[in-house]
Amino acid sequence: MRIQCTWPSHEMRLCSSTLFTFSKNSHKDLSFIRTRTTTVCPSVSATMSTVSTEKDALSGQTESTQKPLQVAKRLEKFKTTIFTQMSNLAVKHGAINLGQGFPNFDGPEFVKEAAIQAVIDGKNQYARGFGVPDLNNAIAERFKKDTGLVVDPEKEVTVTSGCTEAIAATMLGLINPGDEVILFAPFYDSYEATLSMAGAKVKSITLRPPDFAVPIDELKSAISKNTRAILINTPHNPTGKMFTREELDAIASLCIENDVLVFTDEVYDKLAFEMDHISMASLPGMYERTVTLNSLGKTFSLTGWKIGWAIAPPHLSWGVRQAHSYLTFATSTPMQWAAATALRAPDSYFLELKRDYLAKKEILVEGLKAVGFKVYPSSGTYFVVVDHTSFGLPNDVAFCEYLIKEVGVVAIPTSVFYLNPEDGKNLVRFTFCKDEGTLRAAVERMKEKLKN
Amino acid sequence: MEEKRELLSSVAKSITASPIQELSHLAQRCNAINLAEGFPDFPAPSHIKDAAISAINSDFNQYRHVQGICDYVAIVMNQMHGLDVNPLTDVAICCGQTEAFAAATFAIIDKGDEVVLFDPCYETYEGCIKMAGGVPVYVPLDPPHWTLDPNKFIKSFSRRTKAVILNSPHNPTGKVFTKDELEIIAGECRTRNCLAITDEVYEHITFNSEKHISLASFPGMRERTIITSSLSKTFSVTGWRVGWAIAPAFIASAIRNIHVKVTDSAPAPFQEAALTALRSPPEYFESLRSVSNLYYAQDYESRRDYIVNLLARIGFKIHFKPQGAFFLFAEIPENCPLSDVEYVRKLIQQAGVVAVPGCGFFHADSSVEKLSQDSYNYQDRYIRFAFCKSDHTLASAAKRLGELLDAAGCLNLK
């Protein structure tokens, strides 16, 4: 009888009191981050159309006479705002949704079949906390193929509920309250939220159009021996920028000089169109200080399966695993088995994926240009950002509302991806992870109704 | 590659491998019969597996929030406990009860907040509380029947107490908190204006007409209680990771927002299958505690009886028969000088059966020692046996233990 001993809670018994004491700095008091209101992750809230959370969040303080009990201070700024309103608006107006960051087509049959087989075979109970061994192996194999790096699947790979959880576990497991972390804006909104939960001091460096290049001088002045970590997302959501070798080299040497950790979110690594994707972990001297984060969802169009992972040297993986064990304990078992099959897909799968997306990208980009947007070049991901200002609306939110109501197409206002919303007011994000018919229909609507 | 041990804290560097981890490796090597893990080794109900397969085939595979789960959870809460739950605002779907609990903790605990827990208890609560900056304060339940001593309970509160954690039916003892005990807990929460987070994952597994009562159903508790639960134990799908939190709207909203930032979405096809699960007829829930014609009888009550009889016969002290959940917390035979860890080691090596040493559930700390008038040295005398196992597994365990009995018919480990 195959024994699957999964007692992570007990295994961690002696370790639990040591949570989050990794630090080269002394412990500081919790410092609250002055976060502006942040939104529900755009890719989810579109489907949450019946959840009237924003009303509650806004009226919560006056709802009843007795309100003795307060939510934690860390949450005071966390509300669902603009995006929930947008998605409700979209549904109301029957708009074509190029805002949501997930496909309207499904994943490949061979992966779905593997999941079904796993359910039938009875793989429905707790998996080992840090991952089903076969998946850990498949992740390590894939990583070796992609980067040349050899990692120990048992000690250096941790499976999580999506890359979102890998990010949360990395932040909560490796960042102490008061630690300084550098982010590049615009950024995926869970970064700021989980850093806030970890009590970090966030420093943001803005990437600017037209090429969203890393301002190295600005980075040099921001980074110091007080910096605990820097977070890099490449290929980058929302701009589609891919960090170049030169940029990564420059960041790497600053990190080595100042003893800074690097967390890299590489979920779009298989959607690298204009150049090859480079993993920071593969640069000289960097593996030992890097946590590489990835997931199944974008590569295999199965964003709802929530299979992600973190690859890091053992001493960093330990912190990630600690936090992970308290956040979700274990990841969906049947999906993990299917993910192992997926990651071993032949090269042809990945080539076809890119070909498909390139065709979709062309439809969208040509369409957006024809309509009159200033389209910034996107090297990777399935996103494109454009400047909307020629249409005369005052900011990105106003433009998106107009686009939904008057044109019947959804885009995302990028101001939600910056610490200072002003920085994003000229830009909106479109996605092309939709079938070609949908993309063409959206382009048609814009050509017809969107006037300069 | 070179390990950067200097990056670890001094505490982390001093930690050696956990004895419990060693035992689990030993069990694997010895191919031991596993009465340790808290999940079934029999199949999940077919109607629910079919629903999951259908969902995967029907392309329910992208990020999703299945409102229907909230609707059904609200109905069940109303039917079982008379609770009025607004499915649009009061329910947050999460990746298992684990994430619901983690999100609930982050939603209400600030640095320095004290949180009262009952001892023994499931390990993970403490980790979440500390991660959120909270301070766990343990109240020992009194053996042999794990009763709640109101004085100890009341003394554990301070001006900094923010919440009480209640797990009922209880892991590891199988205790179902009584109405009187719940009233004591509710009374203190109301008086002190505290919150409560409940873990009710075993809510549908109770025996001998014992009923699980939700703390939130007591006067004044609905507005201050966060209920967490999941599909896992009720539907034998611990690997699917679909759970929920039920709370007043402003707290549920906070939990939902945290969940979105921590995992974004629970696995989509299993959310779909959850609808089928939650719609199961009364006969399904009956099959959890007794034989059924319609469903594979999980029949936990018979399994409980089997294991209680088995272990009592061979010398374990079973003062307390589980009233719910699927664990038996048995005391090591009187004359045996071994600690729980040593006992389990021998159990693995000689009997080829593994269970969990109870010390992992006890949290001896200064607050407990202060509160406990009796000595607290029972904490290494208990072993937790899981009986959520097939007839074959239980019978095999009985056979193996049977081979090690002495003349008096008691288990004799060398």
What brief labels describe this structure?
heterodimer; A: 452 residues; alpha/beta; Aspartate Aminotransferase, domain 1; Aspartate Aminotransferase, domain 2; 2 domains; seven-stranded mixed β-sheet; four-stranded antiparallel β-sheet; globular; disordered N terminus; B: 414 residues; 12 strands; Putative pyridoxal phosphate-dependent transferase (chain A); pyridoxal phosphate (chain A)
Average pLDDT value of chain B?
A: 91
Backbone structural class of chain B: alpha/beta
Report the CATH superfamily of the largest domain in chain A.
Type I PLP-dependent aspartate aminotransferase-like (Major domain)
Order of strands, widest sheet of chain A: 2-8-7-6-5-3-4
Largest sheet of chain A: 7 strands, mixed
H/E element sequence of chain B: HHEHHEHEHEHEHEEEHHHHEHEEHEH
Radius of gyration of chain B: 22 Å
Distance between the termini of chain B: 43 Å
Number of domains of chain A: 2
In terms of DSSP E residues, the strand content of chain A is 5-15%
Q: Terminal Cα separation of chain A, in Å?
A: 70 Å
What Rg of chain A do the Cα atoms give?
A: 22 Å
Q: Provide the CATH top-level class of the largest domain in chain A.
A: Alpha Beta
Q: Biggest sheet of chain B, open or closed, and with what strands and sense?
A: 7 strands, mixed
Largest interface: A-B, 109 and 100 residues
Helicity range of chain A: 25-40%
> What is the approximate shape of chain B?
globular
Query: What fraction of the residues of chain B are assigned to beta strands by DSSP?
Result: 5-15%
Task: Compute the number of strand runs of chain B.
Answer: 12
Number of strands of chain A: 13
Return the string of H and E elements of chain A.
Answer: HHHHEHHHEHEHEHEHEEEHHHEEHEEEH
